[in-house]
Protein: (2Fe-2S)-binding protein
Amino acid sequence: MPTFNLNINKKNYTVEADIDTPLLWVLRDKINLVGTKFGCGIGQCGACTVHVNGNAMRSCLLLVSQAESMDITTIEGLSEDGSHPVQEAWKEVDVPQCGYCQSGQIMTASAFLKQNSNPSKSQIRNAMHGNICRCASYNSIEKAVEVAAK
Ligand code: FES
Structure:
């Protein structure tokens, strides 16, 4: 089985995996970074969102072979203690219900706010619309992104 060198949360990892293994499964099964969730596996739900070179990307669609030489950040690496402004806003607004989609939501929101630190409501809605929440916490999610932007 081939080996791949990955930079994840500012640490280097060497993993063995089939060349077409999605990054999602390398994160979860080989590196035990289980904060990144599996929802659909086909790029439709956003549960698996991580940052790749600072941009939000769905780790179920990125092959491990494509992830070499990229800077990958997972929810575990967004802050050392859960104190990233988006995480703080999530707590302040008390967003989660079942919580399953939240790491993907937070990774999408944090990448978006880096590019647009003063977004309008419609820009927030547009940025977050691809992240599905089966509890339909969309109003709370949008409110938390607004709070994080302040
Ligand atoms: Fe990747 Fe749904 S698991 S988008």
Q: What stands out?
A: The two ends are 48 Å apart (CA to CA). Residues 85-149 form a domain with the DNA polymerase; domain 1 fold (CATH 1.10.150.120). The chain has a mean pLDDT of 97.
